[in-house]
Amino acid sequence: TGRVVTRSVANAYGNASTTDANGATPAAPSDPCGGYGAQLGYYADAETGLYLCTHRYYDPQNARWLR
Fold this sequence. Notes:
There is one protein chain. The protein has one domain. 0% of the residues lie in helices and 40% in strands. It has no helices and seven strands. It has strands spanning 6-10, 16-20, 36-39, 42-44, 51-53, 56-59, 64-66. A hairpin with a 2-residue loop joins strand 3 (36-39) and strand 4. It is elongated. It starts with 5 loop residues before the first strand and ends with a strand.
């Protein structure tokens, strides 16, 4: 039908924010991709807040790569 269900944006450090169709932040954001697609194929770990980027993790809160 072409209507917006959720909208996600990320800043330059990878910190994402999600809003619903009304512009409000949902209590529990849905992830239709199961964690994938957060950063062009990177896996977003909801428990740690880190992104798995093939061979290492990225921490968007500290803008640092982890080994």
